[in-house]
Design goal:
Elements lengths: L11 H18 L4 H11 L6 H8 L1 H29 L9 H9 L1 H33 L6 H15 L3 H30 L7 H23 L4 H32 L8 E3 L4 E3 L4 H9 L3 H35 L14
Antiparallel strand pairs: 1-2
């Protein structure tokens, strides 16, 4: 008589071991790599390049003071993002980008807004870098080569043809900006809003290949059509870059704290057995209840947000006026053989 096969009991320690390994692998995916560190260092090099022009506009002493103050405020904004990441990230629901934080605390509209602004910023960054280094090559050639040709030469093979360290550094930055910019645009805008295929699928890979040259050409065309590169860079900084360092962090932390501090311990909460969430109030009264817990800190963050917003509006106004005057004074664009920035 054949013995009936019995199922082998699953040892609980083996299950726990596999869960632990899975969690460790998930955490390892979010650990900073050498490539990520290289990207951050390389792109941060570009910031000081524009300080000389800014210092010349407002003077050495006030510019130095503002440089220090805005550096401190940028560090504070980064600390706010770091705090939200630690409190909202999990192995099951990881935070992978800036838009994920906005979505977690303020909903889908905030996420799409952040992703679109970030995509616009990276697109213009690539175009500005191409034009700036086209000017650099034009100065090296002393105006003997057509400007628009130099721009395309630099964008295609600048690392091979140019020995100037600054140009090679910005070429690396442009490649990184372009790579990240296309990924942000495709994954967070095209896929989320327009339903494009995933990059894991063959159709998504083909679309990715098609988007690459279009992205670089579009970046050059948009920026080359504007005669004043300094005012354009300032406008992009006011519309996009300033928001990520100064405007978004304080308003996102206000959303986060209002929801977190509104929870009444012992009375409200989530019941995992029933899947029900219990709340004693809702609407504006709940938000005000949460914001009253740390009144002083929340008031400072609100002041920080309003000040950043005012700074962005003033910067946009100033650069729009500057672009208007530049367009009235010159008709030369980046599409000609003449360097629009001066040989």
């Amino acid at each position: 008589m054949r013995r009936k096969a019995t199922a082998r009991p699953r040892h609980p320690h083996g299950i726990i071991s596999r869960i632990t390994e899975r969690l460790q692998a998930s955490r390892a995916l979010r650990t900073a790599t050498w490539g990520a560190v290289f990207y951050l260092i390389t792109t941060d090099i570009l910031g000081p390049y524009t300080t000389a022009w800014a210092f010349s506009q407002i003077g050495y002493a006030p510019a130095s003071i503002l440089y220090f103050i805005f550096g401190v405020l940028a560090a504070y904004g980064g600390a706010l993002l770091w705090r939200m990441f630690l409190q909202l990230d999990s192995d099951r629901y990881p935070l992978r980008c800036y838009g994920d934080i906005a979505y977690r605390v303020a909903g889908s509209i905030a996420r799409h807004t952040v992703n679109i602004v970030q995509s616009v910023q990276l697109l213009f960054n690539v175009g500005i870098i191409i034009i700036q280094n086209g000017q650099g090559l034009s100065q090296i050639s002393k105006g003997s080569v057509c400007f628009i040709v130099l721009c395309f030469v630099w964008a295609i093979a600048g690392a091979v043809l140019v020995n100037a360290i600054a140009l090679v550094t910005t070429l690396i930055a442009a490649l990184l900006y372009g790579n990240i910019g296309i990924k942000v645009l495709y994954s967070n805008v095209f896929m989320d809003l327009f339903g494009f295929s995933s990059l894991a699928q063959k159709s998504g890979k083909l679309l990715w290949i098609a988007v690459l040259p279009v992205y670089w050409v579009l970046a050059f065309v948009v920026v080359a059509a504007i005669p004043s590169i300094s005012n354009l860079a300032g406008l992009i900084a006011a519309v996009c870059i300033l928001q990520f360092s100064y405007t978004f962090p304080p308003v996102l932390i206000l959303f986060h704290c209002a929801q977190r501090d509104a929870i009444q311990e012992g009375v409200e909460g989530f019941d995992p057995s029933t899947g029900q969430t219990t709340r004693r109030d809702s609407g504006m009264s709940r938000w005000m209840h949460g914001l009253r817990k740390n009144t002083a800190l929340n008031a400072f963050n609100l002041f920080f947000f309003l000040g950043s917003l005012a700074t962005a509006v003033l910067g946009i106004y100033s650069d729009v006026i500057g672009l208007k005057n530049a367009c009235a004074e010159t008709a030369v664009s980046g599409f000609s053989c003449t360097n629009p920035l001066g040989a």
